[in-house]
Automatic annotation (TrEMBL):
PANTHER family: PROTOHEME IX FARNESYLTRANSFERASE, MITOCHONDRIAL. It catalyses: heme b + (2E,6E)-farnesyl diphosphate + H2O = Fe(II)-heme o + diphosphate. It is a multi-pass membrane protein. Pfam families: UbiA. This is Protoheme IX farnesyltransferase. It is an enzyme of class 2 (transferase).
Amino acid sequence: MGRVKDFLELTKPRLSAMAVFSGSAGYVMARDPNISFAMENYVELLWLTIGLSFVGGASNIVNQAVEHKLDGLMDRTADRPIPSGRVKMGEALVFGHVCLAIGLAVLFYFFRHEVAYLALFTYVTYVFMYTPMKTRTALNTIAGAFPGAFPILTGWIAHSNNDFHTIPNTEWFGFFPFAIVFVWQLPHFFSIAWIYKDDYKRAGYKMMSLYDETGKQAVILIFVGTLGLMAVSLMPYMYKMSNGWYFISVCILNAGLLCSSVMLLANRNRFMKQYFYASIIYLPLIVLALIFFPQTTTP
C-alpha cells in the first residue's frame, strides 16, 4: 500500500482535483440553462472527469520527474516521492505516460477530437513550456497560466460534443471563464513566489521574487493583477452570459479580494498568506456563481 500511496502522491491529487473541477464546471456552464441535464450529460460529465483526471495527473507526474533534482533542494518539496527516493524517475515517467495515454483515449472516444487535442495541448504546454521556463525566466508565471486555464475551456468544448448545443451564438462565452481563471493565477502565484522566495532561490527558479528583495514589486503586481481580475470577472455579466445575482456575488467577492490586496500595502509580510488563502477561496466561489446564475435565471 505504501508504493500505491507514493504513486498516487505523484499525481498531486489536490492540484489535479482543481483542474478536474474547472473542467467539469466548464462543461456545466456550457449548457442551455432552459434545458435540464439528461442522463447522457451526467455520463459525459463522468467520462470527462475521468479523462481530465488522468491527463492532469500525467502532467504533474512528468513535471516532478523532470524537476526532481530541484525539488530535492527545497524544503517544501524535498519529501516528494522522487527526490526522497521512494519512486525512481524512470518509474514515474512510465507511470505518467500510461496515465496520459489512458486519459487521451477516454477523451478521444467519448468526445469530439478537439477535446482530446486541447487536453494534450495543456499537457504539452505545462511539461515542455512552463516547466523548463521556471529556471530560465520570471515570465514562467504567465506561461504557466495558460495550461492552468485550459481545463475550464476544455470542459466547455466537451459539452458541445459534435455540435454546440448551447444557447445560439454564445459559443465564444467559454473564453470568459478561461480569462477569469487565467488572470486569477497571476496574483495568486505572485503571492506564492513571495511566500516561498527563499526556497525558490535555493533551487534556482527564476521567480519574480528573485528580483524583488523588498517585496514591493510583488505587492504592486498582486494589486494590479487583482484589479485586472475584477475587470475580467464582470465580463460575463456585461455580455449577458450571467444575471444580476452573479453581478452581486462577484462584487462581494471582488471587494473581499481587493481589501486583502490593499492590506498588503500596509504590511506585506503579515498579510501575504492571507491574500493567498483569500484567492484560493475566491476562485471556486466565482466559478460556482457562473454555474448557478446564468442569464436566463430570474434575478
